């Protein structure tokens, strides 16, 4: 945009226009800027809900936490561009506003929650219980820390969540899906059908004689628009991304080995042990139990005596770092099959049995060198991208073309001589040298020759492009596309013959004919499919045939074209199986629970929407874009 302003003001006409524009901007700031201050809606506020202001920093923290949570689920970082593509930015904003509206309503209603109630709520959360089934303070700290919470912040959030649940729980209470709804949905979802069918293709269409020159010419005239040459554009672009630059970034073995040594423990596979553990309240009781184990009592029977299930005792395969330090040292010093002496840990005194040992695997530099070098190259490339971006922008600001600027900076520009809107070359094949996922073609068709285009964000970097030339769409003559026209004419002839043959076959079946006889008459084979539901994909049966079968009554017949009309399927519905409805079945219970949640969610959403409208909700789009990166 700044480059455009510089170019616009390079002559006297542009200077005059820019002077008028700047004057209007100054006047608008004078009027609207002051009004915003008096409204109390500053740049540091993302949204205002009633009397609650959601600050920029507060929303940034919420949004960052959500990004990190989802990134952990994906197993890799989620970029701002990807988050916006998923609609995560709007989702988090709407959720934050809804929560603020419920908080406002809780204050209006005078709802409260005592410290003791919050404490009990947290201590009863199964996510925070240890092996013995009691609240584990260490586990609590570890879990909330993993989600980016401090204890104070988590307690405060739980207090708000509890009050919101009081409101939403009241709104959703008593909602019950009607029995008729359950019956209809069950029948709709679980109804099954069986069909017999015949597939008609080019073999059943018979011989198709070549068209006469006059017939082909007439067909071409009637369908000329289908063979019209599309508009083509000649474009040039250059990609500056960590991935591209990393390809030619050299990394020495010394640098790679240095990073390998730093991460050696993380890159290898630690030793794991499958263990059983029983925790005792004191050392004396643990010692007595250990003596009984030495006397022949099994570990499993000891657990049963103490009211512990197999899952309570079995900790599974664990690493040393996942255990209490004292327990880890003792357990990983034992051979397989041995039972430890009493071990004093944080949760009490434990006795541990080692059932199985899986040796660790030490990381090997030779097998990981390539990945480590690529990682280092990519990291260095990120720094290089920023440098090249600034240099490229300077070149573009000076009026240098993409190709010339790339040459000056030692980058490889790509030139595509002709591409249509679908990304295909004149031969109908996709253009091969456009990176997958790069939407430069549609951007080029929204631009024109000589336009200074803004760069496109791509894979952590940027793409600059120029439209070098355009070739307008035009009508082709018959000689240019004769083979295509004849092939299309033949396809239409086959489709017309198959439709006629299928219609005749359906008429005979409706008059009492048998599908086997009709199939034999045209040299086709009868196939069957049974027990399929609406959403199923039975082998050999296209989706539109399944849909047509569910629109047809029992013993009814029909026809459905497939693959563009070059095949037609004629079918008869041989059976319809209505599902048995058992209100006590797990399937019905799951369906009922699903409908309950849907009805409750709909009711709560309507309530919150009305609440937001009543108390007043305002969004600062500029601040929202700043947090989510939409303005970058």
Structural description of this entry:
Strands 12-3-14-13 form a four-stranded antiparallel sheet. Strands 9-4-11-10 form a four-stranded antiparallel sheet. It is built from 25 helices and 15 strands. A hairpin with a 2-residue loop joins strand 1 (45-49) and strand 2 (52-55). The protein is of the alpha+beta class and 632 residues long. Helix 3 packs across helix 5 (88-109). The two termini are 13 Å apart. It has helices at 2-8, 12-39, 56-74, 80-85, 88-109, 115-123, 137-146, 151-172, 179-190, 202-205, 213-222, 242-247, 253-267, 283-294, 299-305, 310-313, 325-331, 365-397, 402-408, 440-445, 482-510, 515-521, 543-549, 586-615, 621-628; strands at residues 45-49, 52-55, 192-200, 232-240, 272-280, 314-319, 343-344, 349-358, 414-419, 456-458, 461-471, 526-532, 557-562, 567-577, 617-619. The longest helix has 33 residues, at 365-397.
SSE class: alpha+beta
- Name the quaternary structure: single chain
Assess the beta-strand content as a share of residues.
15-25%
Main beta sheet: 4 strands, antiparallel
Low-pLDDT regions: 1-40
Would you count the extended β strands for me? 15
- Report the C-alpha radius of gyration, rounded: 36 Å
Q: Roughly what is the average pLDDT, rounded to an integer?
A: 84
Span from first to last CA?
A: 13 Å
How many helices? The count is 25
Helix fraction, binned, reads: 40-55%
Identify the strand order in the major beta sheet. 12-3-14-13
Shape: extended
